[in-house]
Amino acid sequence: EIGSGLGALTDFLVNRTKKLTLVEIDSELVKVLEKKFKHTGNIEIKQGDCLGEDYSTYEVVCGLLPYNISSQIIDRFCHSKCKIGVFVVQKELAQRMVAEPGSRDYSRFSVLVQNNSTCKLLEVYPPEVFWPAPQVHSALVKLVKKKPLVIDQQVVNALFQHKNQKVKKALKHSIHLLGEKASEIIKNNPSLVEKRVVELTIEEISKLSK
After folding, report:
1. How far, in Å, CA of 181 to CA of 203, rounded?
2. Cys-Cys crosslink for 167: which of 108, 121, 187, 193, Cβ 3.0 to 4.6 Å?
3. Strand ranges across the sheet with 138-145
4. How far is 54 from 8, CA to CA, in rounded Å?
């Protein structure tokens, strides 16, 4: 569990798993957690930065993520061998995670998440269900890992800098990033380069990456 705080989610999880690891960066909150769960035999408490944790050692990673680093945590999860992630994030980020090609929210982050996992937005929460209440709505998302396609992240970054342009134009604007590769992609994919970047599916992006 990432960022266990005062242990509200931990209370729910503790009897539903054989072993539960809590990662909390605040030393005072760690003391609270240690006192609260000292008689529980299946909890390990780590004081540390969740961005330094190796998620590949866990079968499931979950938590109410700090909104300012949620995308970094999910990026780290996507590049790990952990099988399942269940997170509460800001609603806008959740919408980007599940956005379909052609939609306003479809982005390079959508590509990252969807290429590495099957992602579902399960529920949306208003601010008042949390304490202290944030100024935004939140959402519960579940990610189940799948085998990713081969995608060149440099190509993705170059394309989505100009996501509303046609692929051909976006690549020409990104020659300083891709060099000769931009011309090769245009030459080898005559039909795909006429689509807008934001309309590209994961499979088409993988084809452009080869």
Report:
1. 19
2. 193
3. 60-64, 84-90, 138-145, 117-125
4. 24
* pLDDT score at 186: 95
pLDDT class of 177 with cuts at 50, 70, 90 = confident
Q: Tell me, what's the pLDDT at 43?
A: 97
Per DSSP, the residues of 143-170 read: EEE-PPPP--HHHHHHHHTTTTSBHHHH
How far CA 85 is from CA of 59, 108, 158, in Å, comes to 9, 19, 28
- Beta carbons of 141 and 122 less than 8 angstroms apart: yes
Phi-psi region of 63 (alpha: psi -120 to 50; beta: other; left: phi over 0): left
The pLDDT mean for the chain works out to: 95
Nearest to 22 by CA among 1, 39, 37, 51: 1
Tokens of 4: 């266990």
What percent of the chain is modeled with pLDDT above 90? 93
147: amino acid identity, one letter: K
